[in-house]
Structures are given as C-alpha cells and as structure tokens.
C-alpha cells in the first residue's frame, strides 16, 4: 500500500482554505443587558423557582401531599395545608361600579 506524505502543515493549509471560503458571519448588535428586577419581581421569581424545584422533587420521589406535610412539624404542616386550601379557593371577581 502506498500512502501519500500528508503532514500537519498541509492539513493546516487545507483548513485555512476552508475557512476563507466560508462567508463572514453577520455582526449583530449586542443584546442589551436585562434590567435588574425589582424587589417584588425578584421575590416572585425566587418563589416560582423554589416551587418548580419542589414539584420536580415531589414528582421524582413519588411523594404525596401527606408525605410532604408529615415532613414538617405539625404546626407548619397544618399551615401548609391551609395555604393550599386558600390558594385553591377561587376569589370572587370584583365588579366595576358603573353607576356614577
């Protein structure tokens, strides 16, 4: 079997030739930095992230609400259940007063 002499410099030259044939990527404007969140928005984001992590953990380990409540001390478990009940209740819609 005869093989050609193929060295690293030839390889680099071929790569350079390929790079020259590629079109230059368009330069786009850099994305503006996002504004820092306010205190309420940051807190809401933190709570949402914690909730997602908690639900994923609960799903991964096949935990029921009873398992989660049993993990906490009795008072905190009851408070957690009360929060779930309050959150699940539908709040009545406020009507606009059209009489003027």
UniProtKB/TrEMBL annotation:
The organism's taxonomic lineage, starting at the top: Bacteria, Pseudomonadati, Pseudomonadota, Gammaproteobacteria, Lysobacterales
Region (Disordered): 16-43
Organism encoding this protein: Rhodanobacter lycopersici
Biased composition (Basic and acidic residues): 21-34
Protein name: 2-hydroxyacyl-CoA dehydratase
């Amino acid at each position: 079997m005869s093989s050609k002499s193929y060295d690293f410099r030839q390889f680099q030259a071929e790569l350079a030739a390929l790079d020259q044939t590629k079109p230059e990527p368009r330069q786009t404007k850099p994305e503006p930095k996002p504004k820092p969140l306010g205190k309420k928005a940051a807190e809401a984001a933190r709570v949402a992230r914690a909730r997602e992590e908690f639900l994923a953990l609960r799903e991964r380990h096949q935990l029921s609400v009873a398992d989660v409540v049993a993990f906490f001390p009795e008072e905190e478990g009851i408070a957690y259940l009360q929060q779930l009940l309050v959150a699940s209740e539908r709040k009545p819609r406020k009507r606009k007063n059209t009489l003027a």
